[in-house]
Design brief:
The chain is an alpha/beta fold.
């Protein structure tokens, strides 16, 4: 290859780098505008955020099209983690192909305790044995970690599914694609077993009274009522103090669990539109 050809290639590469740099700063400035607008809301979505992380993540994504991003989302039981993931996903589906992201839920990795429930005869009797659904060892975090590592390395996985009524774990229930963005949510996602895997760490903060209200509403749907529900909620609250609330210090972003589902979708759509517009302009 001639010297002139090499120089031309270098000019093209330098031009591409300049375009990427301009695109990064346009996206960052746009996201800052969205955050400023969010702060003015009665119930803002973002309570705190590491803005340097935005610059770093956006730059890596634009400069490396093979880059995969693992996003961990945690919070107390009934804080709004699943709602956040569902409505972020809804916005993504409207603007992007499903192949661009994958979701993994910690709840699906609960260990099978269907035989223990049958032997006890009821949830109430199961709790009397000292069993807890709200400690890390109730969930197969080793399997979830292995699946997250496989996805980050570009390999698909077959995730299990958990039945909250029967306590049965069904293996290999749902195939998960190794997409660029991987959203993992659950009680122990930012705990010591998994936290090191994530590029972005999110904590959903919700006041205790709202958590309690949501939790009992959901407990009915899962077949837990009366003293069984009371017993488990007391356990939920006690274990949250030990295993979940302290993980907020690991978060890069703290989300307001009182923000409406519609607002979550709206903010996500704004960010997606911003990124799409800038990236398409500099293609």
């Amino acid at each position: 290859m001639s010297g002139e050809s090499i120089l031309e290639i270098e000019k093209i590469k330098n031009s591409q780098r300049e375009d990427i740099s301009v695109a990064v700063f346009k996206i960052v400035d746009g996201i800052k505008d969205i955050l400023d607008e969010d702060r003015q809301q009665k119930q803002p979505l973002i309570l705190s955020i590491d803005e340097k992380l935005i610059i770093k993540t956006v730059k890596e994504f634009l400069m490396n099209k093979q880059k995969q991003c693992l996003i961990g989302i945690t919070g107390e039981s009934a804080s709004g983690k699943t709602t956040l993931v569902n409505y972020v996903s809804k916005a993504l589906r409207k603007k992007l192909f499903n192949e661009t992201y994958t979701t993994l839920c910690c709840d699906d990795y609960y260990k099978d305790t269907s035989e223990e429930l049958k032997a006890a005869g009821s949830y109430e009797e199961l709790y009397k044995t000292g069993f807890s659904f709200d400690k890390p060892d109730a969930i197969n975090l080793d399997l979830m970690r292995a699946h997250l590592i496989s996805l980050k390395n570009g390999c698909g996985v077959n995730a299990p599914e958990y039945d909250f009524v029967t306590c049965e774990s069904i293996p290999n229930r749902a195939y998960k694609n190794p997409t660029r963005a991987i959203l993992a949510e659950g009680l122990y996602v930012l705990g010591e077993e998994l936290v090191d895997l994530f590029d972005i760490k999110v904590y959903v903060f919700t006041p205790f009274e709202k958590i309690k209200e949501r939790w009992f509403t959901r407990a009915i749907l899962r077949g837990k009522t009366g003293s069984a529900a009371e017993h488990q909620f007391n356990d939920v609250n006690a274990t949250a103090q030990v295993y979940i609330r302290p993980t907020m210090q690991n978060a890069d972003i703290v989300i307001n669990g009182l923000a409406s589902a519609e607002y979550i979708e709206n903010i996500t759509a704004k960010v997606i539109n911003l990124i799409n517009d800038v990236v398409n302009f500099y293609k």
